[in-house]
Amino acid sequence: MPSVKPTPEEFASNAIAALGDSALQHALAELPKGLAAKRERAKAALPEFEALRRVGRNIKDHVLDNLDLYLEAFENNALAAGSHVHWASTAQEACDIIGNICRETGARLVTKGKSMVSEEIGLLADLEASGFNVVETDLGEYIVQLRKEMPSHVMAPAIHVRPSDIEATFRHHHRELEPGRNISTPEALVSEARTVLRDKFIGADVGITGANFLIAETGSAILVTNEGNGDLTQSLPKVHIVLTSIEKVVPTLEDGWALLRILARSASGQEIATYTTITTGPKRPADPDGPEACHIVLLDNGRSELLRSEYRDVLRCIRCGACMNFCPVYGAIGGHAYGSVYSGPIGAVLTPALVGLSAAANLPQASTFCGKCEDVCPVEIPLVGLMRRWREKAFDQDTSWRNRAALRVWAALAKRPALYRTAARSMVAILAVLGRSKGHLEHLPFASAWTRNRDFPAPQGQTFQAQWARQRGGGKR
Amino acid sequence: MTEGQSKKTRVGLFVTCLVDLMRPSVGFAAVRLLEAAGCDVAVPGAQTCCGQPGYNSGDTASARALAKRTIAAFEDFDFIVVPSGSCAAMLKRHYAELLADDEEAQLQVRSFSERVHELLSFLVNVCAITSVPGTYEGRVTYHDGCSGLRELGIKMEARKLLESVPGLELVEMADCEVCCGFGGLFSVKFPELSAAIAAKKTACIDAVGPDLVLAGELGCLMNIAGKLSRDDSGTGCRHVAEVLAGEMDAPPICWPGKQP
Q: Choosing among A369, A387, A425, which should be mutated to test the B contact, i.e. which has the most B CBs within 10 A?
């Protein structure tokens, strides 16, 4: 397990390493048969699925058009329900707010449900540095925490890990358990995690969860999980902290419900997640249980700026992970190679906005533009078009003269048809001679990137234009 | 193109640079198919590249300049037909985006986009042909190029036409709609990644064991054929137009001599 976290700058070498990682390749081979296939079946079973995508898109677009209004309404209603609302404009501010709440609570043990926003702000490391004992309660996140890795998928954080490797991780960390125990099956692994986590749930002073949606009209947070860990994380400790980002707000419960229908189907092919919990404030006097205090931390971290930018559509994302499950690039290398909390097509668009284009310029390049991500996105984010916009920006800022020069030569030729035809004729003639005997070239010095792994076809010998001109007496201009 | 006397549909063939440079037989196959469908085909000499390499690399200015040139070169035709889904999508959909801020060009772009068709889609949906000149004794499988499939919605057109070829048996492979990993310049920017994705495609091909892999996109075919050839597979690759037109004198992509 790598102790140094991969970065987006090293995407190309990360990708090569990922291709050679047999354990990872073994895990990734399951993806098309697993999450992707389940989504296809769920879609097929719901005739209005495509229509629902449009509904989802419209809800999110409406929210983004009126974000200030709905955030204000959310805040007012959340306060009325007894929650505390905190606004964090940066990652560090959010970490500080949460650290302070934990400190004021006198917390030692903190449980935490799955939250991509927490990954984005580096919350775990921050709280641990402040001396808190933080335990991830989502099984995938727990595994990743023990392995000191980043999640490799927004929905399935440990999708890169094989069950046999989970067993090794558990044996290494759960030293207090009987060494001779049998945990060779997924069921046994889940059961062991459950046993270990149960004590943490009960002993935790603060529970931190994310939110899939915030409901403006009621001041509630909706959280979906398949393990029920979110419910134990938020209802057992004295203090519950909801950490989420500002674009998660929707106007009404009905809107939340419409989005939940496509979220579960897109993410895992479920009609609805196993647990869907609506939280509105802390425990009320008549409630049998629940936290004494509920804090909601709303993170901006560049989103207001995104909202005003040409990348605004990316804020529609509901973090289902479908774009990853269907992406040929993600499917070949997994999430870690992206070197970002958000990987796959959505990560390729979001990461440059979060960490800056110069650090993440590789990610929008790392796509074949096959368009499958847009096709499956439940809120119709134009991911290819957004990646292309990053490429435009990168091209404008690109200081590498080689990239620019190659494209400039191409453009200069393509804009001069006569010159283009002459250049094309000579290039084609040379390649055709070189590849004549076999019909292909196995080594091309100036295109070794291609010929390292594939043969390059020999051209047929003359350009179409030259032959056409001879046969039909010249192409008319 | 003969002026005045012909009432035939006037088609301008946008050859595409890959066909022009690498595999002119695809261009001649397209001409044969279009002429068999009753069209009057011309090939404007002022065409070069559709602009995709620049557009997808962020060089919008070059792509925009090429878009304007291409539109001007094809002013006189009833239809512009392209033997490539991605180049057709570039002409049909992306030129309008590229020139969206150019008010002067707006009318021209709209009329141009409406007249652009990918070859198979044109033959089936505009010409409504039900038979083709080609015959082929053998098993073929078809790879759906991403742009043609997802940007232009071309799917059944290829099947319909292939089913009309006497002797031909079409066997569908698994994941025929999944990307082959070509992605234009992606294939040389991230060559290992591109080849790894291509390997998944060739595994699907090998599983059905066809004589030929066909597609409507020469970029995909060069990638797939390059991988099959490196692996010494016995499967050939051709542009679907070659089989439909019976334009089979050239050997398959990456192959020496003639066959199959």
A: A369
